[in-house]
Amino acid sequence: MTTNPLLADTDLPDFAAIRPEHLVPAVEQMIADARAAADRIGGSNASDFRDVVLASERAGFAIARGWSPAGHLHSVADTPELRAAYAQAQAMLAEYGMEAGQDPRMFAAFNRVDLAPLTEAEARAVVLARRDFTLSGVGLDDAAKARFREIGVELNRLSTEFGNAVLDSTEAWSEHVTDEALLSGLTDNAKAILASYAAEKELDGWLVTLREPSVQAILTQADNRDLRARVAKAYATRASDQAADPTHDNSARIDRILELRHEAARLLGFDNAAARSVETKMAQSADEALAFLADLAARARPLAERELAEASAYAAEKFGIAKLEPWDTGYVAEHMRRERFGVDREAIRAYFPLPRVMEGTVALIERLYGIRLVERRDVSVWNADVRYYDVQDQSGEIVAGVYCDFHARAGKRGGAWMDVCRPRFRDADRFHRPIAYLTCNFPPATGDTPALLAHGDVVTLLHEFGHVLHHLLTEVDLPSIGGISGVEWDAVELPSQFMENFAWDRDTLTALSAHVETGEPLPDELFAKMLAARRFQAGLFLLRQVEFATFDLRLHRDYDPALGGRVMEVLNGVRDEVSVIRPPAWNRFPHSFSHIFAGGYAAGYYSYLWAELLSADAFSAFAEEGQAAGDRFRREVLARGASRPAAENFRAFRGRAPEPDALLRHHGLAA
User: Which part of the chain is the Oligopeptidase A N-terminal domain (predicted)?
Assistant: First the structure.
């Protein structure tokens, strides 16, 4: 009998051995084991921490260890066979998760645990577990419990289908180019990437796709306005009724997701899904978060209006564009940035070959936190481009690990993210090290030239490493509250956005950069120009984030079952109040808004801006104190996980509550 690799009790998954046919049997076994554990815990009269909480953590760890590799492969190496197996297994897990969250025996066992003799972290784990049982509907009557479980299973399925539709729609569109003149304006590096996409399909010439490196290249570099418009429309109508191929339309899924989230929230006694969402966040209410966003919009809008007027005037004078359209803004901004500040973002790529950027990132992490990332080659991976790093402490002991998957490719969903492969868990004499995944969609290497990153890609890499470090540097031994687990969602972006600031630190950029041809680091003169251009069109950028976040909150707060989702109506209402650029009527941004429909940010997208306030304030401590601030940030924020509330972590680090003006200063909007 072949051993199922998803059930192997190993430090790292054997990705090369995992097959679609392993998923369902593994999940069946994991669920059976978890039910047996619940029977032991709930069927006894246990009340001490070891027999209730630690035993429950052990059961949860076994499921996480087995399912994480399967879920990760679904995101980065999707195939029809894997997708089908994943959908079946995910539905089983979702159903079991709802059942476990409503187990009255387990709830009673956690309620029997006396908090008095416990450590701060142990008590916090119990308190959050009790809360999560309540939010899973443990207190509902039998009929309501059954309905709540049905909703949870269906939402899980719809979320997976939403993400699949975005991926499929992204891959479905392409434009084959055989006349190089159509690509006028593109750099040699950008054209080489498009040529590599054509070669994948055994085509000559170039292939314009909706993968992120292709979209960015066309919308910021292509002189041909019609080509930009075609790519912009294809990208903004993915998975919608307006797409060239509407097969993957997410419209009905969105309406159903909103309907079910509202019903689930009402079953739990909340007015709406937004009220349910903030129950696990720092913000006290959706109205508080919306007020925060409205204040930002009011401060940013006058600046954004001036920026748009300048861009429109420039476009008319330079390119004869009478009306600035969404497919013009990136192109015009690149030319303005080059002319006004002497910053050519594509030329800057030459200073950021990915191998050098990683060397510098490794050095930065060692300088900040005293740990070393050491590449290891004997690890089973899912793609030849994937790199694995052991994390060593100052004594050389391996304490954690991280998989890095940098490049865009077919079968891999877009964006950048961090996820948990293994949580930290100390179970009696067994210590499980924390392991993370870091995933990006950077351009590939072309020929003998390594992948060249835009400065924005460097920011993205540091952002995701912030999440990774939050997971890897935890000193909490309980998976439910270690690393990012259990952290309020509007604070979980603090470590990631904190790391972004180093992308603007001179010493860091020197270490991260080496010209691909000469090896020279980023020159002082060019760095000064980049700094001067840092807040170029900051008002427009901030308003765009406020628009997304406000739309998300209102969509969930104002949902009315009698009226349905009204998705475009709500979005257009937000745009009337917030935006200065109005997209065409065919724009269907919500249909690929995976953060809120296929991720964890429902009624929580505002978390990016909320956490940016925290990170701007936190980073200013480095200017005041230097390395001492890094030591304290690791000790009071990264190491703590959810072992105490995020507000207390911040106060312990900064010595006070966050200052709202920090975010305004960060964006150059302070009075």
Answer: 46-145
